[in-house]
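note to self: the first set is below, dont mix up w the second
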Amino acid sequence: MTPEVSHVQSDVLVIGGGLAGIVAALECLRAGNRVALVDRDTRERFGGLALWAFGGMTLVGTPLQERAGIPDSAERALRDWVRFGELDPNDTWPYLWAQHYVERSRNDVHDWLEAHGIGFLPAVNWVERGRFGEGNSLPRYHVIWGTAQRMVRTLADALRAAGAGAGGKLTLLHRHSVIGLEYGLGRMAGATARNDDTGAEVRLDAPVVVIATGGINGSHAQARRNWPIQQPLPTQMLNGASPLSDGKLHQIATGFGAQITHAGEMWNYAAGIPHPKPHFPGHGLSLIPCKSALWLDHRGRRIGPEPLVTGFDTNWLCRRVAEQDAHWTWHLLNRRIALKEFAISGAEHNPRIRDRQFLHFLRETLLGNARLVDQMQREVPQFLVDDSLAGLAARMNALTGHEHIDPDILQATVDAFDANFIDGKTLENDAQIRAILHARQWRPDRLRTCKPAPLQQLGAGPYIAIQTQLITRKSLGGLRTDLDSRVLDGNDQPIDGLYCVGEAAGFGGGGSCGKRSLEGTFLPGCILTARAAARSIKAG
């Protein structure tokens, strides 16, 4: 339990203990400030959503890219960013933050993390290419060796060490919710928090307040309220964020003139499953869908006419899934595909990377991840396995409680796909196969993507069906900020003493990603905005 305190004085008050809050507090401590950091979650979950994240980062112009012969540049990355995100150059602050990101991600994120002992896997991955090549025009996705969990814990340790080394200049309060911001003499003056265990209130005096509370859609009530009116809204969704990211502090900040912008833009995933050991009601896991799986509607028919394939446009996948008649879809594959391609986003289900077990990681990459596939079969009711398609159809109907899956239709769906291989590989004519062949041209993707083959290939079984549904993750909108992470009022003027960083600021400017992200821009966005705030606070 957090020790009881009633009054804390500091130079900087950071509200939120996720990645952005930790980085902001750490940098402010190193600049000589007294820092109070207040977090709603427990001590064990210090680090927020990043503690559970996989740790993929879109970075521009890195040594890994150079060694792989990837000719990246800030100019090229910005073109991709603006085009794919449909970012309006007249939307000043989001555009300037996008430009800042592509120009500074190498020095302010990559090099800064390496200085803290955080490294990356040697392969640069190619994600969000765009269905028509309008996304990442080359590979930029760097994976932290140790996942984001190691990064967060390393930085949290550095934070505590900096606080102790500064003569006790750090106050950490866990399980405290900020219930009001204080304003006086023309600037911010601190906040009032409540101890969530005892109900006691705490006065937090500080001339500088940094909001780092995460997104605004961790609450599904918020997500539904902010859902784009031009897009279909599923009747049911899983939660891949946290109910603590409910946007309440955003609303409090609007009372001081802050603006919430781009609230309807969000980053969700199209293939979630219920967490077998949920941390909160509705908690879901985000699958990295197998490229070689057939993506079916609730009746077992292939979704089309353009088949759904991951790795090209996540936003489009989410919209297509949301358009379906039922709130769930199916992934149909076999064990051959699952061993090579099946994965779950996050640190929890990637222990070889998280725990830096290189030989085990290499073995599973080359020989197949039977450990994870077998674990899912044991623990997840939505992960169905059978030796025949007819038997699988019966299991699918038993799971949903409906006779939606006609085994003859399921068989016909598979036969139609497998017909591509009857007359030899040169006569394949299927958009999903073309996408797979394109992905396999890049070696890191070839290692994790099967060579196209019939689903009914002899010896490739048994068959697997995974029931999935849309899962919410991140909000791309937030409080409008300038390049110093200062919160702006309706006249585009800074609110004196008020800063906002990370997802709470829409990863910069209140919406720097636009409508779609190049993926992997979220963790770096937290670091960039937090470091910008610390520099501005130091400059006074």
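second set (the one i keep forgetting abt)
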Amino acid sequence: MTVRVEQLEFQAEARQLLDLMIHSVYSNKDSFLRELISNASDALDKLRLESFRNKDLDVDTSDLHIEIVVDKAARTLTVRDNGIGMARDEVVNLIGTLAKSGTAELRQQLREAKDNNSSEELIGQFGIGFYASFMVADRVELLTHKAGESAATRWESSGEGTYTVESIDDGAPQGTSVTLHLKPEDREDELHDYTSEWKIRELVKQYSDFIAWPIRMDVERRTPAPEDGGEESITVETETLNSMKALWARPRDEVADEEYTEFYKHIAHAWDDPLEVIAMRAEGTFEYQALLFIPSHAPFDLFNQNGAIGVQLYVKRVFIMGDCDQLMPPYLRFVKGVVDAQDMSLNVSREILQQDRQIRVIRRRLTKKVLSTIAEMQTDRPEKYRTLWTQFGRVIKEGLLADPDNQDTLLRISSFVSTHSEDEPTTLAEYVERMPDGQGQIFYAAGESRAQLLHSPHLEAFKAKGYEVLLLTDPVDEVWVESVREFDGKPLQSVAKGEVDLDSDADKAAHDAERREREQDFADLIAWLKEALADHVKEVRLSTRLTDSPACLITDTFGITPALARMYRASGQPVPVEKRILELNANHPLITGLQEAHKVRGADAALADTAELLYGTALLAEGGALEDPAKFAALLADRLTRTVGDQPPLT
């Protein structure tokens, strides 16, 4: 008996996404079946786990399975499971709307995708799943009955922007069935005939052979008529289409690469191929098996705080939980896979896992294995390593802060853009190997972009001396360089912090004497600038790092850079405003002219304005933000006006 029927509209973004799915052509429509089987498998996993946890749940778990039913006459294909099922609200939330971030970005990229393969990659990258059904169906019906509840829910849509949700109180078995009303048959496209037995067998074998639950289908068997007369007989047999072998339990040399690829796509709900496969087996005190994958493309939610850790936990091949965040550190959250422990209780929770010694040991071993695999890729498979670092390097560097035990390994597998090459990033080991005699530090500059850093006044003396500088442009770089003090005994030194002495031992004595003499010559100007700019700077001094620019701003050796201070404030942490140091280029005409003007005129108003302009240009040159842009613009306009007025008329 029907209780309640509603017609609802898809969320706006979901509606646009459906339109793209239905009216676009993709090269691999077959993958819809993998998505439906994967969802059914998850539902069976969840039911068995819930039956362990909730002894009052009255469910039969003796024959959990997935069933595929084909009706050639009606052109329907149904995928049915007797798993956990969904309540009405879950149906609306999980299917009626796209409860994922990044949907707008997906739509834009789908529009811009130029070929079928790139479109297909985007679908997997953003995890559409159930919506893939509309690639092959004109109408989709879903009937689901959640374990332990009395009412069931029927959902139906033709993908035209609306869907209906109907509550029913009898007649629906436990679990979920999805029925696809397939698009009209294309006689010329036999490869995509989803009502044929051979096609269903092919797809299950290709995509879902490793599913832990039996995938069954009724098939017809024809017995020819006997030679002595009679009629042909037809019987219907129920066959299991998949082998149900756990890939992680099989020896590596017995598994084909294609099997690993399809298993990765199943557990990660991905469409890309894995970049690297990591198989582990540990015996002894703690026995476990692990099958891990490094993806070839970063997921859209890689930097989402609510993004999922990708490793699934099994105990004795019983699914315990997906996205087990205790098995992999956050900076390796892109790693997908399965861990099957042998000696744990089936009735575990996330809270229990946080205190479990065995889980902590497994996590340490998995982490070291992934990092050692990346190190091997760096040495033996450089093309794969470059892909990995391009996709995940920014995330891996988070470990330099969060994982002190593996900090040295992380430093060695990290790559950085530098002034050495426009195209190829460098490792710290390569940087150290190239260091000239007399250079005792690893120099780096942190900022928003490579182009900005290359034009920074802070790099001028380093370029002149031929010293290589690391160009760090990821936000996390501002943070980790504060905690990593050295590599291979070489201190890390910011080109924009503290005092820099680039003189060789042979030149040091002569240059020190020259600097002392210049400091005496500029003493009055320095004292006046320090007073005139007291609201902005804590100190004014002559620079050893400038060759072309008139001035630059420097942070104290142990001070907080403006960029780092902004990051802390953005995260809600109070950070006091620190004044910085203004360094002057004693060889620049502006500074020498300012010195002469100060000797002659003293501290008049025009000179004070020049000091403000000098400070403002130094701030802009490093990519900083002016404290009072309007005041700076007014001072600059006034100075330009007077400069133009001093010029002879144009003839």
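remember for set 2: Confidence is low (pLDDT under 50) at residues 99-103, 114-127.
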